[in-house]
Design a protein that fits this description.
Cytidine Deaminase, domain 2; two-stranded antiparallel sheet; 4 helices; globular; metal-binding
Amino acid sequence: MGLIQDRHGNYQRRGTITEQDILATAETLLRAKLERQGSISNPEDAGAFLRMRLGALLHEEFHIVWLDQRHRILDCQRLFIGTIGGANVHPREVVRAALSHNAAAVILAHNHPSGEPEPSAADRAITQELIKALRLIDVRVLDHLVIGAGHVVSMASRGLL
């Protein structure tokens, strides 16, 4: 992206900057912050990072943050892409990806293009299916975040896990 940070912590770039450039830069900075912290310790940190990835999308996407035993980020992966009204999530593919990352824990996340982050009945149902499937391979689901227009709902904070 060609960003340059000066000794005061300010960033500069020559040329035109698109909205996509700004969002990608924000995502990079938030991920670096999480990595410096060593682990994800609360839904707000994960929500800020995932809001950058998912908040402005016009279609639904389902992402997973793969974590090790100490809840350090191994990877953040988009697993499923949907339409404006939903995305099909397949537990078998989630389990396969968890094994390939050697993950010990996960944070699930998806966006609602409508902007309303309230978890639907379908969101609650797939969360329970994924918890059961991942439990079979000793992977804990720490949270499922639903991203809306500027807002994030933590299903764990709501007692829905």
